[in-house]
Inverse folding.
């Protein structure tokens, strides 16, 4: 029945269109909800609502916006269990991983609400002393935010934090696979005092409809998280008017283990990050370069750590790994393993669909050894639970191999030698380089090089994406 369909949100109101699409729990393969399927008229209404709400929200004092964002955080934390349960149901994640996503959303709102108060309006000296020059930073306009399905609430925080703090308004489109937690979270914003039209959410399963968001001349900024291929398509579709882009795209991160590294620690950290979220992480280490002197020992330690991972969803003992998002994604990952083995790689562990859980799009944590850099498993973003381990013995060629990819999102280095670490950090072509421990935070810039994107998420620097810079000169 129509009343059982989850509506999307336009101008603070629930909207249904008479059409819907299903949301599937990837851990059970069960249909858990029907969500309203937007049409072009709905998209145009959402854009108009954001446009009309912009002047009022942009004029709201920063202190008032911060107070509203603080109330948003309180409401979201009050509803933690409901939001996390929705996230577990639509993603199949372990409970702890889903709860982390909500904490990132709240943390992003808090960070940007504070950071907006520190936006500088600097004065520029005049060489002749005739003028007072200063820079005025103002809200940019309407933002279209396209969210990925791997971390729905974390991704929402990356967009919602700077949107609200800067004084912009937004139309958010979550992935068709994972719209439920996003809709529930945005619905709560009205209770916290966010005016109608400031944040709108469109849900649909037809890219021809969502393309209307991109083709419109209303948005000033298109921001998204997704694959490189999707990013290229988004930029081409949106090129109907001058817009800014902030796109966090695909990754093919190298992890480098030098012979002087703490092998146990390196193996644990690499395996933990690789199999977090079933490998569906943009910064996950896809290619693990290990020095020949410690190759066998590292493989043994990594296999031991991977063997401790259980498969499941929701609450349970950690470390736990959930399913891939779709059957197609799981089958593609299994085919990639078969192709790699046929090409000469060897299986250390995993590589199969498990007997238990019997349902769901699960795959065993998989480690491949003796992978060669030219194999497809080392050339593309895997986005699945496969770690490709490559031996090396020539450190001079190592960075060239690590950089031999079109992507440049993240890289990881394990060594006890400071000079080695600094050389690697300088030479690796990636937006983030982590030495001896993967570390990411809302206060740290997150951006890609090469084909891994343009613009930036997180940190005070990303707030600049949502602001205009106006030069004002006053004759004395």
């Amino acid at each position: 029945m129509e009343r059982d369909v989850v509506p999307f949100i336009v101008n603070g109101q629930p909207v249904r269109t008479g059409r819907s699409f299903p949301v599937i729990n990837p851990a059970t393969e069960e249909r858990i909800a029907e969500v309203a399927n937007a049409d072009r008229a709905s998209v145009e209404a959402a854009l108009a609502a954001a446009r009309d709400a912009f002047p009022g929200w942009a004029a709201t004092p920063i202190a008032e916006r911060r107070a509203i964002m603080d109330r948003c955080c309180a409401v979201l934390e009050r509803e933690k269990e409901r939001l996390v349960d929705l996230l577990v149901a639509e993603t199949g994640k372990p409970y702890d991983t889903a709860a982390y996503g909500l904490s990132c959303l709240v943390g992003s709102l808090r960070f940007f609400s504070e950071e907006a108060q520190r936006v500088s309006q600097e004065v520029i000296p005049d060489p002749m002393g005739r003028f007072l020059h200063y820079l005025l930073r103002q809200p940019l306009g309407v933002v279209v935010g396209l969210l990925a399905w791997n971390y729905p609430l974390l991704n929402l925080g990356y967009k919602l934090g700077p949107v609200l703090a800067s004084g912009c308004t937004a139309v958010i489109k979550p992935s068709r696979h994972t719209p439920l937690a996003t809709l529930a979270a945005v619905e709560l914003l009205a209770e916290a005092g966010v005016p109608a039209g400031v944040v709108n959410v469109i849900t649909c399963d037809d890219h021809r409809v969502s393309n209307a968001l991109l083709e419109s001349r209303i948005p000033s900024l298109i921001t998204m998280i997704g694959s490189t291929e999707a990013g290229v398509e988004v930029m081409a579709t949106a090129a109907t008017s001058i817009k800014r882009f902030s796109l966090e795209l695909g990754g093919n991160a190298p992890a480098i283990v030098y012979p002087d590294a703490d092998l146990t620690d390196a193996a644990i950290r690499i395996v933990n990050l690789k199999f977090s979220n079933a490998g569906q992480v943009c910064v996950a280490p896809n290619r693990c370069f290990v020095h020949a002197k410690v190759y066998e020992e590292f493989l043994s330690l990594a296999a031991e750590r991977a063997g401790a991972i259980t498969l499941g969803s929701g609450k349970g003992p950690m470390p736990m790994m959930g399913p891939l998002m779709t059957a197609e994604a799981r089958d593609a990952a299994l085919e990639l393993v078969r192709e790699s083995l046929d090409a000469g790689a060897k299986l250390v562990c995993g590589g199969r669909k498990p007997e238990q859980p019997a349902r769901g799009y699960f795959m065993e944590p998989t480690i491949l050894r003796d992978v060669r850099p030219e194999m497809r498993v080392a050339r593309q973003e895997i986005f699945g639970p496969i770690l490709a381990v490559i031996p090396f013995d020539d450190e001079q060629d190592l960075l060239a191999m690590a950089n031999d990819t079109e992507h440049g999102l993240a890289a990881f280095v394990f060594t006890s030698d400071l000079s080695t670490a600094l050389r690697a950090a300088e030479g690796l072509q990636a937006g983030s380089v982590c030495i001896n421990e993967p570390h990411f935070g809302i206060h740290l810039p997150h951006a890609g090089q090469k084909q891994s994107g343009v613009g930036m998420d997180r940190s005070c620097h990303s707030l600049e994406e949502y602001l205009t810079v106006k030069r004002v000169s006053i004759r004395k």
In short: The first strand starts at residue 8 and ends at 10. Residues 95-115 form the longest helix (21 residues). Residues 2-249+452-475 form a domain with the Aldehyde Dehydrogenase; Chain A, domain 1 fold (CATH 3.40.605.10). The radius of gyration is 23 Å.
